[in-house]
Amino acid sequence: MQFGRFHGVILLLLGGRLLFVQVILTLEGLDRSATQPRPTDQSAQAESKNGYAPLHRVEYVPGIVGVGLAALGTILLVKRQKEILDRFSQSQAGHNSGTARSSR
What we know:
The chain has one domain (5-99). 77% of the residues lie in helices and 0% in strands. It has three helices and no strands. The protein has helices spanning 5-35, 41-46, 61-103. Helix 1 (5-35) packs antiparallel against helix 3. It is rod-shaped. The relative contact order is 0.18.
């Protein structure tokens, strides 16, 4: 199965969108902690030193998947572009050798 430029762009855009979702989730966690009252001693130990609660494991999934999809999209775009350039150079080499023979 061959993926083209279109699929690479779509994967890259989807990865970027998921990374944006990750940023929103992270910043939302900062806003939640800023509006909460001062923590008690027990809850202060559960929070990090920066004053916000750590994210749960599930909240990292969009970022991880986003990085993977963005990388996959970039790889597909690079491979497709290399195929296009190789095909172009082969056609130019064939075209140049054909004109050299016909001019003799």
